[in-house]
Amino acid sequence: MNLETTVICPGSFDPVTLGHIDIISRASKMFSHVIVAVLSNPAKEKSSFSIDERINLLVKSTKNLDNIEIVSFDGLLAEYAKERKVTAIVKGLRAVSDFEYEFQMSLTNKKLNPDLETIFLTAEANYMYLSSSMVKQVASLGGDIKGFVPDCVLDEIVERLSTNR
Ligand code: PNS
Questions:
Q1: What SS3 class is residue 110?
Q2: Of the candidates 133, 116, 21, 119, the residue with the CA atom closest to the CA atom of residue 68
Q3: Residues 6 or more apart whose Cβ sits within 8 Å of residue 73
Q4: Nearest CA to ligand 1 atom 6
Q5: pLDDT tens for residues 59-85?
Q6: Are the C-beta atoms of 43 and 36 separated by less than 8 Å?
Q7: Residue 20 annotated in active site
Q8: Are 51 and 140 in contact (CB under 8 A)?
Q9: How far is the CA of 85 from the centre of ligand 1 (A)?
């Protein structure tokens, strides 16, 4: 399937995991153009990696995909989608625990921008449990995060998170 449509894969990507890469690469096979939109958090919402670090890790991890664009956005996703004339968001759905929050976000976005649809891809079985918070917790306590994040950025993430130990 390759639809002539641009979609947005939004997220905090703090940091990118193999679960994110799975969703981004599947979206890039399904749609002609994928905008990976990294939320540039307002100062009060603290992220562990800066916006530049998060984008840099994503750029390195998606070098093999040629129909994606990595950008940052702030404010409402529904507004950003409108600005970019994009009418579909693609998100990964892991377990039932994700569902309620994702459902709420999807309905809120639809209310704010009625043209905006949310398409959910079920997470690959291997990545059902994986989250950026889990990666951060394991790495900051000295655990091995190989197999959780892309190999090409593994050392960078480990080094960066070990400074928080
Ligand atoms: O990586 P995450 O935490 O699943 O990403 C959540 C994200 C960035 C998609 C979501 O927080 C978001 O869209 N934030 C922008 C603010 C917004 O539009 N809020 C209203 C709808 S939830």
A1: helix
A2: 21
A3: 10, 37, 38, 39, 40, 80
A4: 11
A5: 999 999 999 999 999 999 999 999 999
A6: no
A7: yes
A8: no
A9: 18
Diameter over CA atoms, the chain: 46
Distance 70 CA to ligand 1 centre (A): 16
Give the contacts of 11 (CB within 8 A, at least 6 positions apart). 20, 36, 37, 38, 39, 91
Task: Spell out the alpha helix ranges (H) of the chain.
Answer: 18-30, 51-61, 77-83, 96-112, 132-140, 151-162
pTM: 0.95
**Residues shown for the chain:** 165
Active site residue 91: no
CATH topology of domain 3-162: Rossmann fold (3.40.50)
Gap from CA of 73 to ligand 1 centroid (Å): 10
